[in-house]
Amino acid sequence: MLDNLLSFDSLVRGWIILAIFTLILLLFVRAPYGRHQRPGWGPAIPARIGWFVMELPSLIIFPIFWLRLSNSDSQPNQAVIILSTLWLAHYFHRTVIWPMRAEIHHKTMPISIAVFAFIFNCTNASMNGFALFVLNFYPSDWVLSFPFLIGSFLFVFGFLVNVSSDNKLFKLRKNDDRDYGIPNGGLYRWVTCPNYLGEILEWIGWAMACWSLAGVSFAIWVIANLAPRARSNHQWYHEKFRDYPKDRRILVPFIW
What we know:
mainly alpha
């Protein structure tokens, strides 16, 4: 068991190193989907299908781990039940609700991006599922611990920020004849990408509540993906709209 744990930790550390390399790469190369899509990344598929397929592993893998644990001698304790519920709530929204609500019926996505994201979600969900359900080190009173309470609160708060910010984008695109407009209100008063900020807060909260290296690796991956994306979006808005607010920050209010 100890050898398996050491091997798993080594795997997760390698995953974190890959996330850091990805962060550096994305500072120079804009991921080619959404407003930044461009030729040269292979054939494309409808964006709605791409989003559904690439997010689906995160929605499927956790229930598989849950069933595996339930069929064993041990049973999931309160911490595992709450954490897995948070995970599934996020990914049900991301896999099913968001693609149905987003104004992307006329958009496409490179198959290569969907494949990369599918592989990432398979790996990430498996690592976090293994840490949560198989290692399952949580004492019975972990749900009353400071990391769990603060982390769970931060996750829920970040989820609400993410959803409310996306709602403003959905409403803007329904009411605007252009493909994109300038979002306003809520945290958009201070930053360009509050939806990304909300998602980053979610997974920092997840890392705290799980108190696992796998959870930390996911938080690092989210930052590695979304921080450069937020910077690219910020630059794009300034290039496209001359009246874009000059004092609006990129991701963190009043700071960056």
